[in-house]
Amino acid sequence: MHKDVLIKYLLNIIKFNTMMRFSSMLLLALVFIACKHEKNDNDAQLIKVKDYENAVYASWIGQIIGNTYGLGYEFTFIDEPGPDVFPYGYGFTLADLREHNGAYSDDDTDIEYMYLTQMEKNGIEPIYFHLAEAWKAHVKERVWFANRMAVTLMHAGHYPPITGHKDFNSEWFQIDPQLVNEIWAVTAPGMVDYAVAKSEFAARITSNDFGLEPTLHYAAMYSAAFFEKDINRLIEIGNQALSPKSHFVNAVEFVKNQYGQYPNDWQQARKNVCAKYYVVEDYNRHSWAAVDATLNGALGIMALLYGQGDFQNTLDYACAFGMDADNQAATMCGLLGIVNGFESIPKELMFPLDDVDWDLPFNDSYKMITREGLSDITIRELSKRTAVQGEKIILAHGGQRFEKDGEAFYSVPTKAVFSAPFELNAIPKMPLKKSEYFYYPIHTGRKDADIDITIDGQLPDGIQLTDNALLGTPTESGVYRFAIIARDKLQERRIDVELHVLAENMAYGANGMVFNQNSIDDQIAVIRDGDVGTSYMSLKGNQRREIDYYGYTWQDEQLISSLIYNNGKPNEFYGWFTTFDVEYLKNGKWVKLEKFTMSPDLNIDNSQWLKPAYQDYYIEFESITTKGIRIIGLSGGIEKDANNAHRGIEYATSIGELGVY
Question: How many domains would you assign to the chain?
C-alpha cells in the first residue's frame, strides 16, 4: 500500500475509534443519568389504595385480637413459661366481649385512638403541647409505670420530652411506649425513616434512652410491612433502625441465637432469654422487672420467630412467653395483619362467641371504657379515619394518589423525613436548693443550628443556659424571674420562668422529729437523709385509716416560710394523703396554718391512678416564727386486686423527704 494512503487509512481508524470512545462515554453518561433517575423513581413505592386500607383494618383487628386474647394471660407466666398446648383460647375475656357486645378499649389500643384524634384536630404532626393536653384530658385511670409518671408530670406543669426524661420519669425504661405508638407507623406505610423518627418523638413523652428502642424497632417493622412480607427480613429492618450496638439490637440478636439453637424447644429458649433480661439492676431496682421494655420487646420478637408468620401460632407464643403478654400479642398480631392482610386472620378469633350473631368482626364495635372524653366507635370507622391520616401524610411528603387501569394507587415517598415541630413549652415554678445541682432541658423541636435561644432577665447565680438546658449549682438564694426566647428564621416563642432558690434546709438542724408512732417503720430519719429514693411508708399493720403527720421540732424558734414535701414512692394500693394541711407549734400546741399555696397541686383523691412518685411539692406561706412544723392528713388506701386481696385494705402515706426553709 502507498505510504500516503496507509497514513490516511490509519488516521481514519484513529478518528473512528476516538469517536467511538466518545460515543461510548456519552452513552455511559446517559445510562448513568437514566439509572440515577430510575433510582429516584424507585424511592417511591406503589400500593393500591384498597390494599393499604385493608392492611390498616387488619392491623386494628389484629391488635384488638391480640390485646383481648392476651389479657387472659397478662402476667400469668412470669417465673415459668406457659404450657406447650396450643391454642390457649380467649379465657376470661370472652365474658367481657359478651358484656360489651364487641371489642372494648385497653391501654394497648386506646392511646392510639387518642393520638388519631389529635392528628385530626391538630394536623398530621401534632406538637408536644397538644399531645400533653390530650393526655391530661383523657388519661385519668388505668395508667401504669412510665405512662403514669408522664401524665402526673404533665399535671405538675411539665411538658414532653421532660415527662419521659430519665432525670424526671423514674419509670423511663418500662414497656409503655411500645404499646401505644404503632399508629405513627400505620399512617406512614413504607416511610420507614419517617415512621421511626415520629415514633421516637412520641415515645419520648413517656420514656428515654434504651427504653425507647423497642418502640423504634416496632415502628420500622410496621412501616416496612406494607411492602416487605418476610418476617425475618422485617426483624432485620427493625435492627437497622437502631445503632448496631444498641441495647435492644443485642437483645434481638440473642433471641435469634436462641431460636436457632432451640427451634423445637421454645420453653428452653424462653428460659434463657428471661435469665438474661428478666433481671433486677440499678436502673430498675425500685420498680418491677416484669414490665421492662427490653425484656418484653425481646419476647415479642421471639413470638414472631417461632410463629413464622402464622397468626394463631404467633398469638399463642406471645401469650405463652408471658410477662406483659397482651402487649406482645397485640403488637405482633397487628403487624401480621399488615403483613398478610385481613383474609389471613382466623375467623374464629374475630367471631369468638358461638352464641351471638355478629355480621362483622367483633360486631364492628369498639367500646371506649378506659379514656374519659373519647367516644365509642365502629372498628371500620376507626380504620377508615386512620387510613385518611395515612393518605394525608403520604401526600404531604411528596407522594401521590393516582388512577391506573381503573385502580387507585398511592405513590409512597419512602425517603420522607420527619422533623419535630418548632415549639417552646412552659416550665412550672420550681424550688431550687442552694448548693445542689440543677438540670432542666429546654426543648424547641429543632436542631441547635436552626434555633437561637436567649435569656431575657437574670438567671440565678450559678445557673447557665448551656446545650439547650438550664443547668448549674445555684449559689445565692432568692426569687428569679426571666424569660426564655427561641427564634428561628420565621417565628419566635417566649416563655416566662420563675425559679426560687432556697437557702439552708433547717430540717438538718432540728433536734426532734414528729410522726404517727403507730406506724410499724420507725426509721423516720430517712425523710431528711437527702435521698428521696429512701421512702418512708406509714403502714400500721391494721386496716384502720389514721391521720399521718411528718415534721420537726427545734429548741429555738425558727423563721419559716416554705416547705418541700417529696412524696417518695407510693404503693399501688396505698401511700398517699386524702386530706392535707400544714400545722405549726404555737404556745406549745399544734395550730393549723390557715393559708398556704402548693406547687403543683396535690392530688388527694383516694385513688392510685394519678399519684406521682418522687414529686417535689413546694409549699409557701407568710413567714412564721415557731419551734415546730409538720404536714398532716388522712392516709389513703384502696381495695386490692385478686392476687393481693387476702391482705385486706391497708392505709398509709408515703414520703421521700421533707425540707424546711
Answer: 4
